[in-house]
Amino acid sequence: MIQVLTGFGVVVAVIAVGWLFGRTQAEARRGLANLVYLVATPALLFDILLRTDPRDIFSANFLVIAGSAIIAGALGFLVFRLRGRSAPDSLIGMLASSYANAGNLGIPLAVYILDDAAVVIPVILFQVAFYAPFTLTTLDMLHRSRQSTLLRNVVVAFRNPMLLAAVVGLLIGFLRIPVPDLVREPVALLAGASVPVALMVFGMSLVDSRVVVNGDVLIAVALKNLVQPVVSGLLAHYVFGLTGPALFALVVLGALPTAQNVLTYALRFRTNEALARDTGVVSTLVSLPVLVVVTVLLG
């Protein structure tokens, strides 16, 4: 339990710095959100792929992580559409229901609870290399739908910075192309900004903001904190036959709260910002007792 509390303490401390900064520099929030979206997160993805053999990412762990996120996210999208929300709003709801706080909270918790930060890499790779580019490219297309053509949609897709980083990083890994230090080291420096700046943006969003726990937030939190870890456990055990520490790790990763990146993406597209912010706060609070229960039952 001490490990869980320590992991959350690291995250809360940086969020608090963002909140303090936002009290005097509120106008900087959208610019920092764009920095995370356009520069830091693509650099983080590229940096991870430079240090990871792409052939190793499509393992049972990766499939469980991807499957649980897709199932929870698809349920979220369908429920929000049935509740009359627009397609862009429902896509943000989908991310809020399934996009895990892998970098900001997952890495500290993996170190403190699982004693292995590497278990988080498949989550980050799936979310940043596949899940986020697909969703954000779709959002980009929806925002331009009135002028949309097939050629324009292809151009829009390949202008997405995370999709570009994913494609280039995977190609370099598969083809084993050497990357000079003059490229590698600046990318690593920029990648280091992704986690703390995203947390600061989240803290800045809380300034003069009142968290509203409405039906949409409750749905997203239930899917993220309860449904996704259960689906992760079922897939890991009954489909892939995993038990013991491997099963425990995947359930912990499934129970991680909604990432602050979802708010960054919502700010970027000016879509459903309140749901992204409020779900991030509430799911973070709810995930603490959930992770304690998971640790007691499976740890």
From TrEMBL:
Top-level taxon: Bacteria
Organism: Corynebacterium humireducens NBRC 106098 = DSM 45392
BP GO annotations: transmembrane transport
TM regions (residue ranges): 6-22, 34-51, 57-80, 92-113, 119-142, 154-175, 187-207, 219-240, 246-267, 279-298
InterPro entries referenced in this protein's UniProt entry, alphabetically: Mem_transp_PIN-like (IPR004776)
Membrane topology: Multi-pass membrane protein
Major location (coarse): membrane
One GO location term (cellular component): membrane
Compartments, record wording: Membrane
Protein name: Permease
Alphabetic keyword roster: Cell membrane, Membrane, Transmembrane, Transmembrane helix, Transport
